Amino acid sequence: MLENCKSAKERWGGVSEIIDRWLAERQELIVLYCELSNISRESEETSYSSTIQKLCQVLVDYVSAGHFEVYEQLIKEANEFNDGGIELAERLFPKIQETTETALDFNDEYDNNAHALDLLEVLPEKLSLLGEALEERFVLEDQLIDCLHNSHKELVA
Predict the structure, then answer these.
(1) What was the pLDDT predicted at 85?
(2) d(CA 54, CA 52)
(3) Can you tell me the distance from the alpha carbon of 133 to that of 97, in angstroms, rounded to the nearest whole number?
(4) CA distance 89 to 70
(5) Angle at CA 127, nearest 5°, toward 42 and 49?
(6) Could you tell me where the DSSP H helices lie in the chain?
(7) Which superkingdom, per the lineage (predicted)?
(8) pTM over 0.90, yes/no
């Protein structure tokens, strides 16, 4: 039994660090989103361009980390504990994927400096769509973390 606890801690103890790093990146994403949303239309193009580029970079990094690091670890943990988390993940992943597509569409449109400046007229509308998708994504991800990881913290410790 002691060996099982030790083994679980070794396997899943690092997941908290991955999630913490990922959530810090989420915070950075929110800050950049708010910063871009609050730039006045009269601001210099370089202000827009720089903030859009930063937002796009953090957005893609955040989405990628979710799909290729965090979700993978959460699914492994859910399989190990086999307590119903896989069913939740199967219900939530298609919804998360929809938000991924919205985020990647935004990135595809605005990640090019010259092209991004051509699209400033529709930026508020595009930011609004992105914001709605991110809000939904964060709620879904928090559900995954709560069900697939937080419920196992005591068992891992």
Answers:
(1) 79
(2) 5
(3) 10
(4) 12
(5) 50
(6) 2-38, 45-65, 71-81, 85-110, 113-118, 123-148, 153-156
(7) Bacteria
(8) no
Q: Which residue has the tokens 């989103």?
A: 33
Say which residue the tokens 């449109």 belong to.
Answer: 109
User: Residue 88: which residues within 8 A CB-CB, separation 6 or more?
Assistant: 143, 144, 147, 148
Q: pLDDT of 32-58, one tens digit each?
A: 999 988 876 656 666 777 888 999 999
Of 47, 26, 23, nearest to 35 by C-alpha is: 47
In Å, how far from its chain's centre is CA 103? Answer: 10
The predicted pLDDT at position 113 comes to 64
Give the integer Cα–Cα distance in Å for 130 and 148.
Answer: 26
Residue for token digits 């051509």?
118
> What is the C-alpha to C-alpha distance for residues 61 and 17, in angstroms, rounded to an integer?
16
Q: What are phi and psi of 73, to 5 degrees?
A: -65, -40
Q: How far apart are CA 45 and CA 62, in angstroms?
A: 25
Query: What is the pLDDT confidence band of residue 13, given thresholds at 50, 70 and 90?
Result: very low
